Amino acid sequence: MTEPKTVLVVDDDPSICHLFSAMLTAHGFKVVAEEDGQKALTLLRDGAFDVVVLDLVMPHIDGLSMIEEIREYDAALPILVVTGYGSAETTVSAMRCGATDFVTKPVDDAAFLDLRVRRAWDLEHARRLANTDGLTGIYNHRYLQERLRGEIDRAERYARPLSVIMADLDHFKRFNDTYGHPRGDEVLIEVAHTLRRLSRSTDVVARYGGEEFTLILPETPASEARVLAERARDCIAAFCLSADPEHRVTLSAGIAAHQAGMTKEELIEAADCALYRAKRAGRDRVFLAKPVLEVRKLAPDGSVVELPVS
C-alpha cells in the first residue's frame, strides 16, 4: 500500500466527528467515526485502519491513555492527535507517548486535514522502512534492540512476565550451498511469515541477522513461549521439506524469561545460551534457559552478590 485508505476519527464531540468525516470522505478516504474511546480501541483491535485522528480530551479514557494502549499492540499505526490552543504541554506528552503528529483546533480546511493525515502516514511509513528487514519484511536488529529495552522497562515497572525466543535455522549454509541463495532467501521469507502468523499482534518478530530470528513476547512466561516455539519448529520443518530429505531446513530455539534486574544484554545472552544448548543437543529442538540470577548472598561489605546458577 502506497497511501492511506481508511481513517478512524475519535472525538467525543459529534459535530467534530461529522465534520472530519465529511472532510476526509471528500478526499477519498473511507472514514469510521467513534465518540467513545473504549469502543474506538475495540475497533482498532478488530479492524484495519491506516490512520487514527484522535482528540486528546475525552471522558472515560483520555487521548494519552489511548495512545499508550494502541502502542502496546501496534507500534507503527499513524496517530494524528487533535489539540486545542494553548495545550503545548499536552501535545508534547502525546508525542512522547507515541503520537505521530498533531493538528491544532479549529480545523476548517478539508485540504489541510487531508495533508496532515497523509503526512502522518508518510512519517510512520518512513519509520517502518527504517525498522524493517528488507528481505523478510519483519522488524530488523535495530528496532529489536530499541523495543526490547522498552519491554524490559515495562516488565520491571509492572512486574509482568516477558520472554524472548532466539531461533536459528539449522545447517542453513549447507542448504544455500545445495539449492542456491535465491532458494535460501525464499525460505527465510517463509520462516519470517510463519513466525509472524503464529505470534500475537503484541509480539515482536525480528530478524536478528543471517538465518537467526528473535521474538519478544510481552506478558508471556517461558512455558507459554515454549509452546509457540515448538509450534514454529513443527511448521517450519513441514514447510521446508525438499525433494532431498537430507537437506531439509529445521529450527532450533532458545527461550529466556526476564528476571528482575536483568538487562537487555543479559536477557538476549540467556536466550542465546539456551539456543546453543539446543544446537549441541542435536538441533531441531527447543531449550529453556537456566535461571541466571537465582542465588544471593551478602558480601563482606554488606552489598548483595548474585551468583550464577551452574
Question: Care to give the gist of this entry?
Answer:
The protein has 310 residues and is of the alpha/beta class.
How would you describe the overall organization of this protein?
By secondary structure, the protein is an alpha/beta fold. The protein has two domains: 6-131, Rossmann fold (3-Layer(aba) Sandwich); 141-307, Alpha-Beta Plaits, CATH 3.30.70. It is 47% helix and 20% strand. The protein contains ten helices and twelve strands. It has helices at residues 14-26, 37-46, 63-73, 88-97, 110-131, 141-158, 172-179, 181-198, 222-239, 264-280; strands at 6-10, 30-34, 51-55, 79-83, 101-104, 162-169, 204-209, 212-218, 251-257, 286-288, 295-298, 304-307. The strands form three sheets. A five-stranded parallel β-sheet has the order 2-1-3-4-5, sandwiched between helices. A five-stranded mixed β-sheet has the order 7-8-6-9-10, sandwiched between helices. Helix 2 packs parallel to helix 3. The longest helix is centred in the middle third of the chain and has 22 residues, at 110-131. The N and C termini lie far apart (51 Å). Mean pLDDT is 88; it is low at 293-299 and 302-310.
